[in-house]
Amino acid sequence: MSRVAIVTGGTRGIGRAICETLKDQGLTVVANYAGNEEKARAFSEETGMPAYKWDVGDHEATLEGCRQVEREVGPIEVLVNNAGITRDGTLLKMTFDDWYDVMRINLGGCFNMAKAVFPGMKERGWGRIVNIGSINGQAGQYGQVNYAAAKSGIHGFTKALAQEGARFGITVNAIAPGYIDTDMVAAVPENVLEKIVARIPVGRLGHADEIARGVAFLASEEAGFVTGSTMSINGGQHMY
Ligand code: NDP
User: Where do the Ketoreductase domain residues begin and end (predicted)?
Assistant: First the structure.
């Protein structure tokens, strides 16, 4: 029987590409999403993969959602923490809710999901956790103290959990994407985006499937000696 993978925020953008790539690698894949029913329906109809709705920032809902997936599909052996939001603004304009929502979903979501699946992985002696960080968590970004803090936190979370998982056959790694052509980046004003692209040595935005291929490697059997690492996939924009 193939291994079960869950991808949070898997119904569109980078998450959808990750779901499709992992499915192509032979895994049984389920997506989670927050509430965009149209995208979730299109995802399931077009790919044949199920989509489960819950807010990864909600601890109880996440535990219950993962229990439901395990009852209906099987034990979760691969977790991809991909769900994320932006609430950009300079510190002077940022509200506490903007700060808190981003911390709760982007960073808290990783904790909640790991709490739900880590015990089972430990018991079975095998697991793969891949967390999607960001170039802006490595380098910082004007107008994103909330997002940069949460993504930077993901990189610390990854290294700490990798140490806890290592002797149970669980690897924990992160990917730090650069700018990828998804809905999230479509929200960036065009004049700002032009300046960003000018700073990318390869001269273009990345594609979601370029992130997905990195995830597929880190989730594979062959990557068992890779843990606590961050793979930057950013067109050379930030060499860390
Ligand atoms: P999108 O905005 O295109 O998609 C976000 C996905 O996350 C959606 O499926 C959304 O669900 C889901 N989601 C949002 N909030 C929650 C929540 N509370 N609970 C569960 N699911 C949620 O994002 P991208 O594909 O662009 O980004 C994916 C990840 O990659 C994010 O973590 C992002 O920070 C990171 N990243 C993206 C970069 C980029 O350039 N695009 C660069 C660096 C990092 P729904 O559809 O229901 O709203």
Answer: 3-178
239 domain-assigned: no
Residue nearest to atom 12 of ligand 1 (CA): 9
Query: How remote is the C-alpha of 206 from its chain's centroid?
Result: 16
pLDDT in tens, 60-101: 999 999 999 999 999 999 999 999 999 999 999 999 999 999
Q: Is 147 one of the annotated active-site residues of the chain?
A: yes
Closest ligand 1 atom, CA of 13?
A: 25
- Whole-number Å distance, alpha carbon 39 to ligand 1 midpoint, is 12
The beta-strand segments (E) located in 140-229 are 170-177
CATH number at 136 reads 3.40.50.720
ipTM of the complex: 0.99
134: containing domain: 4-231
Q: Which residues, other chains included, contact 71 with Cβ-Cβ below 8 Å and sequence gap of 6+?
A: none
The whole model's pTM is what? 0.98
